[in-house]
Amino acid sequence: MENKKTPITINDKDYQFEDMTQEQQVLVNHVADLDRKLSAARFNVDQLQVGRNAFMSMLEQSLQKKPDED
């Protein structure tokens, strides 16, 4: 069975994960995990912004109604 290595590109230079030291592998894993968390945070911010915009729109529409229009 052939051992496949995991290619990683850092600053336009290619490395093999399995050829890195244990410390370097840990650092790569931290960076990858933080990238995933940043992506999830951006996704959450997008959802929050859309939700806020929707509630603001509903509030603005409500404020334009006359009191007897309920």
Provide a compact summary of the structure.
With 70 residues, the protein is mainly α. It has one helix and two strands.
Account of the protein in words:
- There is one protein chain.
- 61% of the residues lie in helices and 11% in strands.
- By secondary structure, the chain is mainly alpha-helical.
- The protein has a two-stranded antiparallel ribbon with strand order 1-2.
- The model has no long low-confidence stretch (mean pLDDT 94).
List the defining traits of the structure above.
two-stranded antiparallel sheet; mainly alpha
Write the layout of secondary structure elements.
Layout: E1 7-10, E2 13-16, H1 22-64
Antiparallel strand pairs: 1-2
The main β sheet shows up as: 2 strands, antiparallel
Uncertain stretches: none
Helix content: 55-70%
Cα-atom Rg, whole angstroms?
24 Å
Shape: rod-shaped
Cα separation of the termini: 73 Å
Number of strands: 2
Q: Write the H/E string, N to C.
A: EEH
